[in-house]
Amino acid sequence: MSIQAIAFDAYGTLFDVYSIGELAEKLFPQRGAALAELWRDKQIEYTRLRTMCATYKPFWEVTQDALVFSCKKLGLDLTLDAQNSLMGQYAKLKAFPENLGVLQDLQGMGLKMAILSNGNPQMLEAVVDANGMHGIFNHILSVDAVKKYKTAPEAYQLAPDVFGLSAKNILFVSSNCWDACGATWFGYTTFWVNRANAPLEELGVTPDATGRDMTALLEYVRQSREAK
Amino acid sequence: MSIQAIAFDAYGTLFDVYSIGELAEKLFPQRGAALAELWRDKQIEYTRLRTMCATYKPFWEVTQDALVFSCKKLGLDLTLDAQNSLMGQYAKLKAFPENLGVLQDLQGMGLKMAILSNGNPQMLEAVVDANGMHGIFNHILSVDAVKKYKTAPEAYQLAPDVFGLSAKNILFVSSNCWDACGATWFGYTTFWVNRANAPLEELGVTPDATGRDMTALLEYVRQSREAK
């Protein structure tokens, strides 16, 4: 295997969504964790339903819909202020502490890098800006270009197209196991950043490599290149 | 609107999946509810991932995969015996108490009826048999025929094809809101059996009608036909 480029998932992989749960807890004491979890699940569920039914809508809006539903389901009174704070959090998520250093090292090794995310372009620009990461990525790819969310093949095809490489020569990195599995099915070489020490999804497919954080990814890339 | 046939979702709509939670609680005291919920969520998640990635596998197997994952995630030791009991429960789920009477009344009104389910044919045959419902349905349709799960259009297309009717003239009935919404997007006239009094999914689409149980469905069909 010869990795010539890396495509990163954004939310949960590069950027830490933990602060959303913290803010939810502040707004809805004792219910923050439940809200953050249901919100995330609904957000992803809606992307899949809209992809299967060809009813695409940008991630920002889907995320907002999921928040509204989750509050109704949990019986929480979502004021406009609370909605704006929670949504606004997405624009300023912090990168995990080791990430910037690892990304710079990977860049130093001559690897081309991209973000490949469900997020719409405006969301991605904002969070990349907020983390001073503009110099790092050659491309910021949003599924908005194809109006289908991951794990649709059309979404995964964005990185091979823009790099002019076969998926096998691109390392796809995600902390979402379903995303790493979908990318493996698609044909990428894959690395699952299993930060939560979760069990592997029972999908009959295994990412090529797994590690606990981005430092483990750096180590994996180094070893892969030495083994060539 | 002129309803000439009805297509029913199976699990949760015709057949009560509550007994699965009861059995799970017996096998894993204090954890039954959590297992039943995660199992159901994973089961549906896997059908969607496999549909988006064209990696279809029959519902029985997907259901088993979801059970295995859920137990790993919750740290429950799933023996083969426990696995067989839980899976076996799907084959003998009881219909909701009002269902047989309502189905017979609908049949008496001259309506053609079908099941349109994610379940594979063997599972559906077993549960229809167990409930003595063979005389009721003109067709038992499984998405296995198209190797794509609901909410894929190819899955919903099965009933219009077999009835030779447009989707608008078929009433699609489901207790899963996402299924009722997907069917509405597809073009069916739809009825959401909202047994749990859940909020409507925030998908920008609303089923044509909603009721608390199958008796409400019967009332809706009667009124629709009188209004013609």
UniProtKB/TrEMBL annotation, chains A, B:
UniProt entry keywords in alphabetical sequence: Hydrolase
Pfam families for the chain: Hydrolase
Catalytic activity: an (S)-2-haloacid + H2O = a (2R)-2-hydroxycarboxylate + a halide anion + H(+)
Xref: Gene3D superfamilies: HAD superfamily/HAD-like, Putative phosphatase, domain 2
UniProt KW Nucleotidyltransferase keyword: no
Annotated SUPFAM superfamilies: HAD-like (SSF56784)
EC number: 3.8.1.2
GO molecular function ontology, one term from the record: (S)-2-haloacid dehalogenase activity
Listed transmembrane segments: none
Function per UniProt: Catalyzes the hydrolytic dehalogenation of small (S)-2-haloalkanoic acids to yield the corresponding (R)-2-hydroxyalkanoic acids.
Family: Belongs to the HAD-like hydrolase superfamily. S-2-haloalkanoic acid dehalogenase family.
Protein name: (S)-2-haloacid dehalogenase
